[in-house]
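Hi all, posting the design record for the shared folder.

TITLE: backbone redesign
STEP: 1 of 1
STRUCTURE INPUT:
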């Protein structure tokens, strides 16, 4: 498949590039600075330097793609930010201009406390601790999610819990439109696998898929 990845220099983005290239996909990484990509990846994927916030700048990168994955996010989850909402708005506009398509967006399971969570997580940990601590990043993600949901694209939102840089376990759990019970962490490598699995599964279109280790 032909895949474009935004947020490609971040921890999750790099893992998506590695996994996708290893599976033989034709991968385009959209970055501000190509030098921030690991040298070995620059040799295995097509690299486009562009401003993700400018739809015209990224138009060619999303045109004719089988799927677009956005792993955009703030590097400081406690500071005010609009990076997710602004980038999602731009990506949607660029994809609309290119004729639509498949969009997979990385969000966070901490946004919602629902029946998939255990009682402590649902009524204490998330609303009283996590959502307050990360309120700026979560507010940004919620706005981005709303834009994606309102779009005419074939979208799927993927919500992982806390990400780790540990080696891949080679397996993950998932749930559609609810959180994963006891899903506290997932490795970025396993998240990358989940994103590519979701990307190729049309049954997830129009849904939120929560994943966890």
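Okay, here is what came back for every position:
SEQUENCE:
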């Amino acid at each position: 498949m032909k895949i474009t990845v935004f947020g490609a220099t971040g921890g999750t983005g790099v893992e998506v590039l590695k996994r996708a290239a290893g599976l033989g996909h034709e991968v385009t990484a959209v970055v501000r600075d190509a030098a921030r990509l690991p040298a070995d990846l620059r040799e295995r994927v097509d690299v486009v330097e562009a401003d993700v916030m400018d739809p015209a700048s990224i138009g060619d990168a999303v045109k004719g793609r089988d799927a677009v994955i956005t792993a955009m996010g703030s590097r400081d989850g406690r500071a005010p930010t609009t990076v997710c909402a602004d980038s999602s708005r731009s990506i949607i506009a660029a994809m609309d201009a290119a004729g639509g398509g498949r969009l997979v967006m990385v969000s966070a399971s901490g946004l919602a406390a629902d029946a998939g969570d255990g009682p402590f997580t649902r009524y204490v940990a998330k609303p009283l601790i996590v959502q307050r601590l990360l309120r700026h990043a979560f507010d940004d993600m919620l706005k981005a999610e709303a834009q994606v949901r309102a779009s005419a694209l074939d979208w799927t939102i993927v919500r992982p819990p806390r990400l780790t840089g540990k080696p891949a376990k080679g397996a993950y759990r998932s749930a559609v439109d609810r959180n994963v019970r006891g899903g506290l962490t997932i490795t970025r490598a396993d998240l990358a696998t989940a994103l590519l699995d979701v990307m190729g599964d049309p049954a997830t279109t129009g849904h939120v898929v929560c994943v966890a280790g």
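COMMENT: The domain at 2-212 is CATH 3.40.50.720 (Rossmann fold).
Let me know if anyone wants the other runs.
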